[in-house]
Amino acid sequence: MTALAGLIRKEVYHILRDRRTLVVIVALPVLQVILFGYAIRTDVDRVRIAVVDPSPDTMTLALRARLDAAGVFEIVKVSPTMDAIEPLFRRGEAQGAIVFEPDFAEHAGRGVPASLLIVADATEPNTGSIVQAYASAVVQAFEQEQAAHARAVRITPAVRMRFNPTRRSSNLFVPGLMAFVLTIVSSLMTAISLTREKETGTLEALLVSPLRPWQIIAGKVAPYVVVGFASVVGVIVEARLVFGVPLRGSATLLLAEGVLFILVSLSLGILISARTSSQRVAMLGALVGTMLPTMLLSGFIFPIESMPAPLRAVSAVVPARWFVLVARSVMLKGTGLAYLWPATLILLVMAVALLVASTRAFHERLEA
Amino acid sequence: MRRILFLARAEVLHVVRDRATLAQVLIVPILQLLVLSNAATFQIRDTPTYVVDLDLSTASRRLIERFASSGHFRIAGRSASANLADEALLAGDVTMALTIPHDFEAMLVGTGAAPLQLSVNAEKGSAAGIVQSYAASIVSAYAAELTAVRGGAPRIDLRMRSWYNPSLNYTHYMVPGILVALVTLIGTLLTAQNIAREKELGTLEQLNVTPITRGQFIAAKLLPFWTLGLIDLAIGLLVGVVVFGVPVRGSLLLLFGAAAIYLVVALAIGLWISTIVETQQQAMFVTFFVMNVYLLMSGLFTPIDSMAPWVQTVSLVNPVRHFVTISRAVLVKGAGVRDIAQPLATLVVFAVVTLTLAVRQYSKRTA
Amino acid sequence: MSGAAADAPIDAHDLTRRFGSFTAVDRVTFEVKRGEVFGFLGANGAGKTTAIRMLTGLLSPSGGRATVAGHDVARDAEGVKRDIGYMSQRFSLYEDLTVRENIRLYGGIYDLSDRDIRDRTSRMLGRLGLEHAADALVRAIPLGWRQKLAFSVALLHEPRVVFLDEPTSGVDPITRRQFWELIYEAAAAGTTVLVTTHYMDEAEYCDRISIMVAGRIAALGAPAELKQRFQTPSIDDLFVRLARPTP
Fold first, then answer.
1. Do B160 and A311 touch (CB under 8 A)?
2. ipTM for the predicted complex
C-alpha cells in the first residue's frame, strides 16, 4: 500500500508543481461554461418580420400596431408587394412575413373572411412554427377582443410550464453543458498525464516495478479525480450564479455523480494511454474524430427522443448522456437516487469496465 | 513556382499512400454526416401526452381526438387522476398533460367560454414553447370549428405558408451546416496534424535547411489539402442530396466559390495551430478545443438569434458562422451573390488576415 | 564581403547559444578552409549539434558571429541555405516516398533542372550502389541505405559547404568506407566538409579536427599535431582525456 501512496504522492507533486496547467484545468471548464452557456440557446425572443400591406386601412393598421406592440416582433420592413419578401428571407434579414390581402377591412366588414397570410422562413423549421404561433396568437387575440360575434367560442388554455417556469433554454442546456466541458477537461488531464510519462519514459519503469497494474492505474487516476472535483464544483457554482439554474435536488448527490462521471472519463483516457504509442495516436484520432457525434448524441443539445432508434441505442453507450440526464433531473426536477439509480449504476459499470480493461491492457504491455 | 509544384506533388503522394489519412478524409466524414444528420434534430413529433378527462363528454372526446390525430401528439396515458398525470410528467414518460375540467361541454354550450389546463414539461426549454404553440393552435382551431357550428363567422381567415422547407424537415436545415463542420474539421485538423507530424519526425528540419521560402512551403502544403477539402464538400453534398434530399436551389458554383475562400481560412488556422504545437497529439487536442468553440458558436446547432447579444457580436469573427449562413442560404433558399455579399466579404477579409498571420508565425529558424 | 570569404567557407567567432540559464555553445571560435574535411568531435551533449544548427541557419545564435559560404548566419540565414547541404543526425527524409522520389523532390527544391536531376540521380545511385532500390519505399530499406540516401540529398546540388552530422552511425564498415571515399571526392572537388562522428578512427581521416567539451572547444588542429601536442597515442585517448570530468 505504501507503494501506491508513494505513487499518488508523486503524481500530486507533479500536478501542484505545474501551476499553470493546474489553473488551466480548473479554469477551462469554467470559461467554457460561460462562453457556451450564453451561446447555446434556443429561445426565440424576438422574431424579425416583414409586413406586406397593399392597401393599408384601419384594420390592417390596427393589427400592425398590435404586432408591433406584442414585443416579440421586430418589423424590419413594410412593403406594398410580396416581391420584397424573398430577398429579405434570402439575406436572413427577416424570418417571417405577414401578408394582408388588398381591401382587408372591407372584406372583413362584409363578412367575407379577410385573408391574412403568415409566411415563415422554414429553413429552420421550429422558428417557422414559432413565427406562425406568435402571429396567429396576436391575430386571434385581436379577433376575440373585437368580440363582434357574441357567438364566438373561446377556449382558453392555462399553461403551466413545469420544472422550468422561465422556460429559459439555458436551464436545459447548462446542465448538459456541464457534462460536455467535464468530458473535455478529463481528456485534457489524461493527455497531460500521458505526455509526462511519455517524455520521461517512466511508464515502462513503473511497469517493471513491483507495483501491480491496478495500483499504477489507481495512482494515476486518483489525484486527477480530486482535481476534477474542483472542476465539478466550479461548473455547478457557475451554473447557479451566472445562469440562475435552479438546484432543486440534493447538491451532495449532484457532486457525487459529477465525481463518478469524471472517473468514467478519466478511465477512458487511461485505457487509451494503456495502448502502445502508435495505437494511441490512432485512438486519439478516433476520439477527436468522434467528437462531433459525442457532442450530439449525449442529449446535450439535441433531444434523444427525437433521434431514430439506432442512434438512441448508440447514445446509451455515451457516458455523457447519463450524466446529462442526472444533472438535469437533480437540478430541474429535484429527483433523487430513487429515480436515478439506473443511470448511476450504468456510470458505475462503465467506470469499472474501463478500469478493468485498462488493467488488462497494462498486463499485456508487461507480457509484450 | 516550380518548387511549389515539386513539394505539392510530394504531398499528394503522401496523402494517397497513407491509408489512415485517406480514410479520415473520405470515409469518416460520410459516416459522420449520416450519423449526425439523423441526430441533429429538434423536430417535435408524437409528443407523448397524458390526458385527464374530467368531463367525459362529446366535446371533450372530440378535442382529445383532434390532439391525437394532429400528428404532433400521442396519447400515452389517460385517467381521471391529476396525480397520475403529475407523476408521469415527473418521471419523464410524458411531455404534456392535458386536463379537461369537468364542466367543459356545459360551459361551452352555455357561455361559449371554457378553460383548459396544459402542463408542459419545460425541461426541454424551447421545445416546450413549440409544444405549447401546437397545442394552442389545435385548441383554437377546435374553437373556430365550434364557432362555425354556432353560426358565428370568423372575420379573419388565417393561412400559413412555410417557404423553402414545407415538410419542416430538420435535415434540410442541418445538413448544409454539418457539411461545413466536416469540411472545417478535415481542413484544419489535417493541416495541423500533417505539419506537426513533420516536426515530430524531423522531416521539417530538412525542408527548413533548404532555400525554399515560407510562402512556397505553405502554398505547397495548403494546396493539396485545399483541394481535398473541396472534394470532401462535393462528396458530402452528394450524400446530402441523394440520401437526405437536401435541396440545391442556388448556384453550386457560388457555393464552391465561397467554400474555396472559406477553406483558406480553415487551413490557415490549422497552419497556425501547427506552429504552436510540437507533436501530432498536441495538434489533435488543440484543434479539438478550437473546433469546439467554433462549432458551438456558429449558429450551426443552435440559432445565432438566440445567443446573448455579446456572444452574437463575438460570433462575427467566427468564420464558420459565415460559411454556415452562406451554405444554408445558397442551398435551401437559392440565394445569389448579392444576398450573401456580406458574409462572403467577411470571409475574404478573414482569408487574407489569417493566412498572413499564419505565414508570419511560421519560422524556418528557431529564435 | 571580405576576401577571406573565399578562403574560409566556415568562419565562427565566439559563437554562443544559451537556452535559459544553460549555455550549450560557449564562445566557439574556429574556421574551416575551402576543400577541407573538418572533423567536429565531442561527447553527446557537448554542443556539436547545436553549433551545427546555428551554422546551417536553423537556430539563431545568442552571441558571437559566424559566416558560412560568405553569408552571415544571423542576418542572412536564407543565403546560407542556398549554398549548403545538410545531413542530420536523425533520418529526416520521407519514409513513404521512394528513394527516387525523395531525390527528385529535393532536386526540385534546389532548382535543379529536370535533366540535371535525372543525371545526378542516376550518377548518385550508381555511385552508392542504390540503383536497385531506386523505386523502393524508404520505409522498406535498411538503415545503411537510408543513410546513403540522406547523404546523396545533402550533396545533390553540389553545395559549397556540406554539414554531415554523424553520417556513419549505424552503418556497416563497407558502407562507412564508401562514405569516406565520397567525402574525399567532394573535398577534392572543392566542397568544404564539416563532419561529426563518434568513431575516433574516422577522426584520423580528417584534415583537422576540433573537440568540444561542455560547449567549448578544448582542442583544435590536425590529428597528428594534436596527438603530438597532448602526447596521446590516439585521438581516442585524447578525447577521453579531454572529455573526462575533472576530478
1. no
2. 0.90
